[in-house]
């Protein structure tokens, strides 16, 4: 029977929310290793395997980036073995997090390689992708034979044959496809959309034929719907039951604007999912390919401690690695320059801690305190608010929102990208200034005058012009 997994933005609380919605425990958790840079790649794997999901008595279906976003690494470099040391570090961390059993550990890398959305896109680099994938697999296999590997593509309506980037049967245990019914792209007629998904040149039927020809089971590591319609979910349920599908993982997140069911914004679809997949757990383990899992024990629900242990520090420059939003930190005033690094979704700096850095690939919200903070986002869309003090804010690669409050010091944004510059555009959210506020600038120093006449200054490095799309008043 197909194993049911769920993606919940690397959040144990989101998994619990989904299980409450579903009326049973999920059979597996879709975990994602960070890929902002190689440090994030190795450290987030260690954190996720040994802290975030520690003690979770169920499989984690890992998505591990083949390349990272920063530093411009290439598939050609990966194919030459340049990044094998990083791959080995991650393999060791993921293995260390599953020392209590001998079950297979499923790894999806280079996902959706037939699109151009990721740094590991195989489009025009098929041979290099194959070489990089093989180096990744060999590096993991050198650590343990428990690892199993999913080669993954995205369902597309056209385009080149994805099999041109297939790494070979010796390097693939499971063939995977991600598929979404996105009404804005595929139309609102459920039957027409499904028929095309099924029969397109590189659609579902083609994909399962390829898997059969190579003797591989299949997986659907991401799937979702944004329509208030039950038919797509019913069709997917029937598809899983009628094919050799090892696991499927629903994308229960609004990070990509599609898919979340637990908020009931598409109630017909939410109820259809509960009807299809709720009830008794299928936790008989994962099988398929070269792997099997015979653990019939019912796992405990994942849990973030309600009151994580207090972290206290000395008087020097301290660095805290924080794994839960409510972790208390006791830092003395004038106790050095202190930094929090974290992968959690929302974090507010405690008193007497100056700096905050986000890693991982999920959307993050970071809030400063009254000190002169340095806050650095990840490459997802971030919402950063320095609070009081003269703060230095860096958004990273996503479409970020910078919250600037009236009278809250003179902040500097190091990487603000106005609309019209190309790529992800950032936004200034100006709070407390009133609707009749005025903005002017001298070079890259912008002055924001509130209705009461007070002026707050903001420096945007490399920017000397804004238009109405670049800011909003709140």
Automatic annotation (TrEMBL):
Classification via Pfam families: Glyco_hydro_26
A single MF term (Gene Ontology): hydrolase activity, hydrolyzing O-glycosyl compounds
Catalytic positions? 112, 222
**Region Disordered: which residues?**
286-318
Q: Which residues form a coiled coil?
A: none
Homology family: Belongs to the glycosyl hydrolase 26 family.
Protein name listed in UniProt: GH26 domain-containing protein
Source lineage: Bacteria, Pseudomonadati, Pseudomonadota, Alphaproteobacteria, Acetobacterales
């Amino acid at each position: 029977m197909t194993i049911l997994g769920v993606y919940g933005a690397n959040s144990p609380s989101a998994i619990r929310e989904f299980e409450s919605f579903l009326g049973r425990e999920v059979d597996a958790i879709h975990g994602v290793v960070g890929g902002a840079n190689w440090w994030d790649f190795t450290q987030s794997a260690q954190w996720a395997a040994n802290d975030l999901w520690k003690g979770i008595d169920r499989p984690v279906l890992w998505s591990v980036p083949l390349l990272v976003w920063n530093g411009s690494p290439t598939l050609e470099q990966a194919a030459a073995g340049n990044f094998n040391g990083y791959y080995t570090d991650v393999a060791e961390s993921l293995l260390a997090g599953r020392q209590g059993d001998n079950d297979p550990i499923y790894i999806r890398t280079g996902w959706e390689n037939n699109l151009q959305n990721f740094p590991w896109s195989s489009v025009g680099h098929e041979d290099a992708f194959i070489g990089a994938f093989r180096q990744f697999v060999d590096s993991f296999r050198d650590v343990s034979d428990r690892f199993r590997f999913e080669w993954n593509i995205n369902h597309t309506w056209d385009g080149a044959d994805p099999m041109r980037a297939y790494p070979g049967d010796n390097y693939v245990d499971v063939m995977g496809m991600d598929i979404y019914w996105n009404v804005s792209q595929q139309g609102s007629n459920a039957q027409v959309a499904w028929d095309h998904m099924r029969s397109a040149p590189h659609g579902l039927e083609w994909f399962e034929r390829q898997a059969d020809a190579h003797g591989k089971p299949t997986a659907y590591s991401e799937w979702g719907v944004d329509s208030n319609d039950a038919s797509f979910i019913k069709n997917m349920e029937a598809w899983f039951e009628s094919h050799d599908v090892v696991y499927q993982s629903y994308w229960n997140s609004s990070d990509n604007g599609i898919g979340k069911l637990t908020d009931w914004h598409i109630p017909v679809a939410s109820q259809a999912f509960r009807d299809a997949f709720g009830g008794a757990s299928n936790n008989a383990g994962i099988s398929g390919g070269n792997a099997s899992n015979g653990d019939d024990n019912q796992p405990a629900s994942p849990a973030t401690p309600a009151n994580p242990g207090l972290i206290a520090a000395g008087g020097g420059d301290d660095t805290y690695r924080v794994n839960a939003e409510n972790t208390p930190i006791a830092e003395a005033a004038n106790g050095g320059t202190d930094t929090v690094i974290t992968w959690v979704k929302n974090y507010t700096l405690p008193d007497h801690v100056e700096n905050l850095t986000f890693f991982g690939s999920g959307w993050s919200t970071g809030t400063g305190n009254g000190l002169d903070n340095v806050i650095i986002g990840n490459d997802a869309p971030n919402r950063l608010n320095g609070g009081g003090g003269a703060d230095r804010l860096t958004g990273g690669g996503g479409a970020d929102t910078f919250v600037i409050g009236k009278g809250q010091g003179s902040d500097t944004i190091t990487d603000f990208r106005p609309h019209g510059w190309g790529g992800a555009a950032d936004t200034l959210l100006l709070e407390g200034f009133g609707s009749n506020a005025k903005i002017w600038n001298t070079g890259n120093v912008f002055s924001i005058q509130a209705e009461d006449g007070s002026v707050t200054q903001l420096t945007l490095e490399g920017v000397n012009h804004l238009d109405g799309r670049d800011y909003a008043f709140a």
